[in-house]
Predict the structure.
Amino acid sequence: MENTDEINESEFRVKSIKHEGVISKINFSSYTISLKGNINCEGCKAKAACGVSESNDKEIEIFESNQVFSLNEPVTVSLKKELGLKAVFWAYIFPFILMMITLVIASLFFTEWFAGILSLLVLGPYYLMLFVFNNSFKKAFKLSILKYN
């Protein structure tokens, strides 16, 4: 008979993106974590689009953790792979598609240079919309924080 804890833990490893980090700041309702370089980034398919793999000085803020952590404690930050791919879609792929569609449609009605500028300008309202709905995205892309073993 197989141990179900081992199965669930191995499924969690496969279905999540993990980064090691250190608690750098503790606020009343959140933890700020400084992420270390991650060897898992080498095998990740989204490595080219992900900003975490490029630098060692990334910081993220995690709200509402059920566990208690101390300052400078090593932790593991985890995100489900599906959510990571969804984040890459909203941050990189959808804006590219939006820009290309705007370029194609605008080039039917305007000159090339104006269509190009218009396709770039359409990104401003898009990223403004992402900023306005920042809290919704924070709720949707929930990160887990685990004590480092």
